[in-house]
Amino acid sequence: MFLEEIKKRTLDKIGDKFSKDLRKHEKEVRVVLRNCDLIDPDCIEEYIARDGYVALNKALNYSKQEVIDRIKESGLRGRGGGGFPTGVKWQFAYENDAKQKYIICNADEGDPGAFMDRSILEKDPHVVIEGMAIAAYAIGASHGYIYVRAEYPLAAKRIQNAINQARENGLLGKNIFDCDFHFDIDIRLGAGAFVCGEETALISSIEGERGMSRTKPPFPAAKGLWQEPTIINNVETLANVPLIIKNGPSWFKGYGTEKSPGTKVFALAGKVKHSGLIEVPMGITLGEIINEIGGGMAQKRRHFKAVLTGGPSGGCLTEKHLDASVDFDTLVELGSMMGSGGMIVLDDHDCMVDIAKFYLDFIVDESCGKCTPCREGTKQMYHLLEKITDGKGRLADICQLEKLAKLVKKASLCGLGQTAPNPVLSTLENFKDEYIKHVENKTCPAGRCKALISEFVITDACIGCGICAKKCPTHCITGLKKEIHIINQEECIKCGTCYEVCPKDAIMIKGGVQ
Amino acid sequence: MNEIITTKKMKELDECIERNKMKKGPLMPTLQDAQRIFGCVPKEVQEHIGKKLNESYAKIKGVVSFYTMFSTKPKGKHIVGVCTGTACYVKGAQKLVDKVCEVLKIPYGETTKDGLFTIAPTRCVGNCGEAPVVMIDEDQYGRVTIDQIEEILNKYK
Amino acid sequence: MNKVKVKINEQFVEIDHHLTILEAAKELNIDIPTFCHDERLNPTGSCRMCVVEVEGARNLMTACSTQVRDGMVVKTHSTPVIEARKGILELMWANHPNECLTCEKAGNCKLQDYSYQYDIDPDSLYPRLDSRKYFDDTNRFYTLDSRKCILCGKCVQICAELQVNGAIGFEDRGIDTRISIKQNEEPTDGVIDPYTCVSCGNCVNNCPVGALMPKSKEKFRNWEVKKVKTTCPYCGVGCQFELVVKDNKVVRVDPVKGGTNDGLLCVKGTFGYKFINHPDRLTHPLIRKNGEFVKVSWDEALDLIVEKIKETKDKYGANALAGLSSAKCSNEENYLMQKLVRAGFGTNNVDHCARLCHASTVAGLATTLGSGAMTNSISEIDGTDTFLVIGSNTTETHPVIGSMIKQRVKKGAHLIVCDPRQIELAKMADVHLQIKPGTNVAIANGLMHVIYQEGLYDIDYIDKNTTCFKDLIEVIKDYTPARVAKICGVSENDIIKAARLYAKVNKAAIYYAMGITQHSHGTNHVKSMANLALMTGNVGKESTGINPLRGQNNVQGACDLGALPNVYPGYQAVTDVNIQKKFEEAWGVKLSNEVGHTLPIMMNDASNQDIRLMYIMGENPMVSDPDTNHIKKALTNLDFLVVQDIFLTKTAELADVILPAVTYAEKDGTFTNTERRVQRIRKAVEPQSDTRPDWEILTDVMKRLGLKADYKTVEDVFNEITSLTPIYAGFDYQRLNENGMQWPCPSNDHPGTKFLYSDGFTKLGKAIFTPIHFMGPKENPDHDYPLILTTGRTLYHFHTKTMTDRVEALKQTLPNNFIQISLNTAKQYQINHNEFVLVSSRRGTSKAKVQITDTINDGVVFMPFHFADGANMLTNPALDEICNIPELKVCAVKIEKC
Ligand SMILES: Nc1nc2c(c(=O)[nH]1)N[C@H]1C(S)=C(S)[C@@H](COP(=O)(O)OP(=O)(O)OC[C@H]3O[C@@H](n4cnc5c(=O)[nH]c(N)nc54)[C@H](O)[C@@H]3O)O[C@H]1N2
Ligand SMILES: Nc1nc2c(c(=O)[nH]1)N[C@H]1C(S)=C(S)[C@@H](COP(=O)(O)OP(=O)(O)OC[C@H]3O[C@@H](n4cnc5c(=O)[nH]c(N)nc54)[C@H](O)[C@@H]3O)O[C@H]1N2
Ligand SMILES: Cc1cc2nc3c(=O)[nH]c(=O)nc-3n(C[C@H](O)[C@H](O)[C@H](O)COP(=O)(O)O)c2cc1C
Ligand code: SF4
Ligand code: SF4
Ligand code: SF4
Ligand code: SF4
Ligand code: SF4
Ligand code: FES
Ligand code: FES
Ligand SMILES: [Mo]
């Protein structure tokens, strides 16, 4: 078999390059990321040397239903955010009779704070191609698209190169592995629209339309791209597929929890010591991720406040959730969601109202504008939040905000609008007191909302180290070494830099509306 | 014909259109080609594409105005993107944005008079571990602080 | 069909599984509010107003887009639902100007109605967003006030999916999303860009709020008006709409969904109503006294007419009299006109504009198939696989049918266009055969040649249903693609491609009009169409057939009702003694069995003073007949001319008596549209001044002539019609009331006929192939007159403009006579775009504005015939010998600078 040959040849050439352990922490695992940073992504031989395309070959020896059954049995759930069982979805498309079907790899990765898919595409492109080919075979598709975010030119390049190499090796195209299976892939680039990560908007975009979402049902598996049955899977989902086929469902279930088997890649970022991409088995606790793998807070003196998961569709989890298991269902139960895997850690200098506003600003920008609740409602939510962070809020605004958030959630057309209120609802749930402080006391405890800061003052705790004076952009802080410094309030622009940098937290915020 | 739309570029576009026409859904790739070739997709180009692809101008205008990557006016020589993705935001990206605007003396999203810089709204460049990130064209700068901004921009002047 | 049981608000309903919750609720008379829903469009679910609670669903579901499931439990008005709808309305309102007080839409506005119904607080906590501020009033017919737009998206969908122009779209995204329209800034001069707004108003008519509004000077509130359903008076599509009337004045037109046009209209239907109440209307009977028209009483006018009729008849015999009936008038009126001529004048000299229009169709199809009407129905367009549109500028002349063809083509049907000009449809066609004018027979023979050579004909069908196929083969064998390509000036490959596209599909339909008929060999052109359709077995089935698009609103009816010199109502020959006897008995007079003279012959007769008196109802030959100088001579040579019209036309200017009739809006009756559908017209405004409906005037004249004519209402006339006209026998006003009915309808339990010849060609026994050799037009370009002129119509004007010129916006859209010319030809004559030139033929000269366009071939020019002293100064009155249609589509001209 030619794969064997290539493997042998390649292994001879590269020596023990593959035996490196790239994990930074023992709680990490390397399943989906097993090839990342290990193989040369521009070299199909190295992928094959890691048993690449063996799974495809194996799949082609199964019946379509057998392939689907294996995926179903593995319990693989969509890594694009929703966590929908992949095998079940495939089954729908398989059962919908049509001459033409499509498989789409969703590489739009729009969550601002996530970069798992990018890494896989750039570092191990063939695993995605192999996953797509298996999916295509299972549902009966002969054509696939990879919809890559325009901001990822390198990923697109690598993928294109990988597609070319796969074609050259007969792993894409006609009669793959001499079977009656034909499959090829096209790359489509996004053009700067977060909503195009939503599957129906993505379809609109490929069709050359405005990236506006469409009502479901009909679901893409019944009527998708060009009205044909279409399966859309996330990059990471597809990257799991070859492994499941190769190693079997029970191997896969060896990782993770019963309902969320397997591993998950997270982009850990924010105020943790070690940020970056991590892969962990599902069911690990938040605490383990943040405190052990992440090494705790980046700045020792700061306190963990919350972790944002699920990006603009998710919510925040707090101290009390640190023991919670990280899996699809638990996160939803706790009012957040897994999302695509962004995980951003906040400390006590982050204002939760401001964070909610940040996400809404993003959503207002990114709403496709098709449906009333999302288009108009998110803008009004933003206004309410702005009112609150500007110190003009009243208690009634918080009620209105909550009511509106629920309307947008319940009545919006697509996932974007349906989840857009989550950051608001979850911060309201966990940090209502912070909201109330904004409207009642006119203060922002985290010192983020400029309008609610009448003054920064330096307290007795100051040791006169001078760091703040050095960092202040307007140079309005003065003081002798080892003496308490003073802020010239006239010149202070309330940027909060001093507050941020003071190693002794000697700087205090005075509230009140400016 | 003006500076932006030259016959040569038009020819290049036509070649792209012919190629794209062979695929289903040729509009997006064609607009992406046009954006690359002309640096923007002005009205005349939109109308031209419409005729070639048998699509209405209203539709093409709708698509062009939907996606942020397409612009109808040329962008600056260098695209400055201060990432305002979540990770960068919590690491103070807003201050960097303000600083860039201050240094270049233009509002967010606009192009400097000399056509050198455009500040492009940017959400997560996939390098959150290095937040806050500033991107100029293809170059990424991680863990940027306010005082580095001028220095970075100067490299491109 | 799969029925499912659904529980809605504690009630059960059993309905088809593919229907939506909205439709299920409707069954139970439960009203669910909607903004973006339209039963003709794919649901988008964008406004979210129709949300309902579905048991088990995480979120609220939109009733308009969610299909029912067995066992589904739905709540349409529960507290969460009401709350959500309120919330949505509040959000809409917060981005909408508070202007109901002065808004023209008030009283007809869904946002206003629902806001009231759902008790929303206009001063909610939300700040006004004011995110849409754009106001577009560049269109002559309507305005777009984006501030009032709720972005339901219906306009975008309607323009793209139903009108199929795609002129209106969304711009930007999110909260900045807005609607914008590609407008036509300049007068179009007959070149339609398929992607700019054609002002059909279909978006305007469906905007749920006051964002898209017709431009109107009339002030009215929607609760002050009455609405009357009637039929469009312009073209043969026969669109159904409601006239909206305030104080006896039409102030708006609302389309009617379902039925003929299913809510679509064209610019003339939507906006072309202002002629009704126009001050130029004729108001009193006029008699020419010493060269001046003087207002007189009806008695004086009618007495004079009757006196002249009697006098002329006595002096010169009955055949010195003639009547022109009108395809603008109702069936009843046409019936009365031919009765007046036949029974009152005592001659069969009655004809009407069908002579200039589809005479060749009637002659060509009656002898090959059995009947001269469209074989199929408009609704069958949706089943056709390939369209051959030949000599029909459908999107301009039958716009709603044009849109339906476009809809079907968008869904994947093939389209072949055969026209000397690149008309709008040609731009979306698989093949455009841009033939030289007058070469239809050659192209048809060429197509048949390929079909025969490639064995694509339907031999079983031919054997079973036709005769003379062998003769056809003999003729078409000489028409190789190479030869035909040369004659017609098209490519061989296109001929072959077209032939395959037409012959290889299951259902191929021919749609044709004046480009086929108006030739000196028009009848032969029509027969060629029949040959082509028969050869491929495309007659007698649904969605195929051969479809002559009838032009005037009631030209089909005028023919049906015997406004023709050779037949009584229902195409019963005047030469048939039994028929003659039937009518003599019914009308109580002796009738002539001598076939009367056709319109062009009448004009020759008048010119020679063989005809002395003419009664013209609702026609304007001074503008519409070929060779205006000749017509002028003919009409001025008459001893006595009666013109019965609604305006003082060029023809009326030559009259001795002018009778002021009323428009369609002021009378009752029926029109028969192009698909043989007899539809009601209903009086919406009272006749003004001293005007009278045509049927009343005719009745009065008949009475004065001593004929039996005691009709109290038009319905009485209609009942007489059905008693004498077998194809109409089964109709009565009651049956026609809802959606009209299609003839033949022989009895009152017959459902009417959707498509013809479903049970074979019973009238003739078998359909007859009539092989035709190509023969060119009568006049060809030469040294003195080197260009071929073809003439026709434009979207914005109707015929001689008597009506459309009284609609200011239509007039402005196309203010000048123009001539379309190719760039090369223009260069040859050194003439510029928009310059005025003199165009001359052997018969006369006309002035026209130059429109240089790439839609026409070198050496060919096009002029509309709407303008007085326009195209018909030039056209050739040469006639088709079989049916007397003049050669309006080809003559030779030259161009000079002014
Ligand atoms: N807006 C508007 N609509 C109308 C009317 C109107 O005046 N205005 N009039 C109504 C009436 S009464 C009628 S009869 C219909 C007529 O409707 P149409 O027949 O569609 O209208 P025309 O413009 O006369 O001619 C149609 C086409 O024939 C083409 N043509 C010319 N010569 C030839 C030829 O030799 N061969 C072929 N194949 N094509 C040729 C012309 O280029 C033109 O595009 O329209 C009806 N509808
Ligand atoms: N060069 C050239 N000439 C052509 C053609 C062409 O293609 N080229 N086409 C020919 C064709 S197909 C046609 S159908 C003819 C049309 O020729 P015409 O029938 O002469 O044209 P219209 O302008 O429709 O004339 C109808 C008249 O009826 C009047 N009218 C409207 N409603 C009523 C009513 O209720 N009662 C009465 N009493 N009058 C009413 C109108 O004011 C108008 O004067 O033109 C023909 N002439
Ligand atoms: C607003 C929005 C953005 C989304 N963005 C992405 C994305 O960037 N990548 C992705 O894989 N899925 C994204 N999704 C989820 C997709 O719609 C879809 O569910 C997913 O691609 C299915 O793949 P999976 O089953 O493999 O998860 C997004 C959904 C919404 C509502
Ligand atoms: S929820 Fe938002 S993104 Fe989704 S369809 Fe509605 S407006 Fe568009
Ligand atoms: S569009 Fe409707 S709601 Fe708006 S101002 Fe007019 S009547 Fe009032
Ligand atoms: S203009 Fe009217 S129809 Fe069009 S989107 Fe706005 S509200 Fe809807
Ligand atoms: S008037 Fe007709 S053509 Fe114009 S935008 Fe509206 S629907 Fe489209
Ligand atoms: S298509 Fe004909 S019948 Fe319909 S609105 Fe237009 S002119 Fe009237
Ligand atoms: S948020 Fe800035 S790089 Fe991801
Ligand atoms: S009517 Fe159903 S969503 Fe608009
Ligand atoms: Mo006509």
Key words describing this protein structure:
heterotrimer, A: 514 residues, alpha/beta, Rossmann fold, Ubiquitin-like (UB roll), de novo design (two linked rop proteins), 5-stranded mixed beta sheet, 4-stranded parallel beta sheet, 20 helices, 13% strand, C: 898 residues, Alpha-Beta Plaits, 5 domains, 7-stranded mixed beta sheet, 6-stranded mixed beta sheet, 27 helices, 40 strands, binds ligand MGD, binds flavin mononucleotide, binds iron/sulfur cluster, binds FE2/S2 (inorganic) cluster
Determine the N-to-C terminus distance of chain A: 75 Å
**Uncertain parts of chain B:** none
CATH superfamily of the largest domain in chain B: Glutaredoxin
Q: What share of residues are in beta strands of chain A?
A: 5-15%
Instruction: Work out the helix count of chain A.
Output: 20
Oligomer: heterotrimer
Proportion of β residues of chain B?
5-15%
Overall structural class of chain B, as computed from helix and strand content, comes to: alpha+beta
Instruction: Name the overall outline of chain A.
Output: globular
Strand order of the largest sheet of chain A: 6-5-9-7-8
Q: Quickly give the CATH architecture of the largest domain in chain B.
A: 3-Layer(aba) Sandwich
How many domains, in number, for the residues of chain A? Answer: 4
CATH uppermost class of the largest domain in chain A: Alpha Beta
Order of helices and strands of chain B: HHHHEHHEEEH
How many whole angstroms does the radius of gyration of chain B measure? 18 Å
Q: And the CATH topology of the largest domain in chain B?
A: Glutaredoxin
Average pLDDT for all residues of chain A: 94
Please summarize what this structure is.
The complex is a heterotrimer of chains A (514), B (157) and C (898). Chain A has 514 residues and is of the alpha/beta class.
